[in-house]
Amino acid sequence: MTETETRDLLVKLSASLFARGFSVGSAGNISVRLDDGYLITPTNSSLGRLDPARLSKLDATFAHLSGDKPSKEVFMHRAFYTARADAGAVVHLHSTMATAVACLPDVDTGNPIPPLTPYFVMRVGRTMPIVPYYRPGDAAMEPAIHAVAVHARAVLLANHGPVVAGKTLTDAVYAAEELEEAAKLYLLLRGASPRLLTPAQVDDLLSTFG
Ligand code: 13P
């Protein structure tokens, strides 16, 4: 995919997320790895109204090269890219259900959402830990996310929202959508003792779909 095609896809997928309420206002940010660096959404931009020509371009060391001023969460994205060779894109949202789970005091912070459905496991993986609260834009979040991202494709930032990596931009967006739906199911089923996928079923999904 050319850089122009990647810019257009990022704008299209962001607008789709915004249109369906996965992001409101200027919340959320999305980045994608290029051959010579990264694209990331500009700070204070709405995912619903991005301009492909004004996306922030970063070099391979995450320094700002061109476009509007980058998201204040560049380090959050960098934590995933440096922790995971397989990360080709990173999506951060404040999507309602995942953020609700990230506000609950009584969940397993190592893995708050159990394996309820195959697509959550296939897209998000076996674990999605909660990283303690940091102020948005606080660079101290980077080592905390990095330590977890080595073992997990997605994290929940306490009282803030999800961050998820994917091999491609489309994969990362699909994973963010599945994560939100899984959080919704989890909240719907709280207290209902739902049947979970067994460890063998989870292993089967991961060995079949990666
Ligand atoms: P930016 O507008 O700087 O990307 O920040 C939005 C956000 O989601 C903060 O967590």
Protein architecture, described:
- The chain is an alpha+beta fold and 210 residues long.
- It has a single domain (3-209), classed as L-fuculose-1-phosphate Aldolase (3-Layer(aba) Sandwich).
- It has helices at 3-19, 74-83, 96-101, 118-124, 141-149, 169-189, 199-209, and strands spanning 29-34, 37-40, 56-58, 64-66, 89-92, 130-131, 154-157, 161-166.
- Residues 26-29, 41, 43-44, 71-73, 92, 136 line the site of 1,3-dihydroxyacetonephosphate.
- Please give the count of helices: 7
Judged by helices, strands and strand pairing, the structural class is alpha+beta
Name of the CATH first level:
Alpha Beta
Please, what is the average pLDDT?
97
| CATH architecture annotation name | 3-Layer(aba) Sandwich
String of helices and strands:
HEEEEHEHHEHEEHH
CATH topology: L-fuculose-1-phosphate Aldolase
Radius of gyration: 16 Å
Count structural domains.
1
- Residue stretches low in confidence (pLDDT < 50, at least 5 long) are none
Distance between the termini: 23 Å
Q: What can be said about the biggest beta sheet? A: 8 strands, mixed
Q: Supply the CATH superfamily name.
A: Class II aldolase/adducin N-terminal domain
- Strand order in space, largest sheet: 4-3-2-1-5-8-7-6
Fraction of residues in helix: 25-40%
What form results from the Cα inertia axes?
globular
Q: Which ligands are bound?
A: 1,3-dihydroxyacetonephosphate
- How much of the residues is beta strand, in percent? 15-25%
Number of strands: 8
